[in-house]
Target: J domain-containing protein
Amino acid sequence: MERLESWKLALERPRSAQSANWAEAGRIVAEIVRMSTDVTLRQAAEQALPVLRQAVDNDDHSVTLAAQRRIGVVLEVIHDLSAPRFGRRNAMPKKLSSEDRARKVLGLPLAVQLTCEDINRAYRRAAKGMHPDHGGSTEAFIDLAAARDILIHPGAHKDV
Model:
């Protein structure tokens, strides 16, 4: 992380400077190619290196713009790697209740009050494609019927 921040600062200078030191930028990008463990950052740096080397003693404006764009790409990758992540990392997804699983099987929304008619309508719609006579599997059809039963009689089934 510390190395990413130093590379970020070192590459911001030539990107924002009017007359950049492309040799120094090339040296930093070559260091990134050698030392980076992230594949995406290494690839971005490898693609930027030839353009930066070409820009060293070149007064052509298009080469300078290309070099600035390549440094911008490398900086974007560095920023993505060094930006703080929000939320719980490596957390297991929350287990769904049996009712929520049944709603997903039937294709029903999770947070809406359902009537028996809504449940039966969703069951008939899903059963058309899952019935064994119409190319579906027996297990999927049995799961579908169980999901309907769980939603129609919610207190009769325990969470598994």
Observations:
- DSSP finds seven helices and no strands in the chain.
- The domain at 98-156 is CATH 1.10.287.110 (Helix Hairpins).
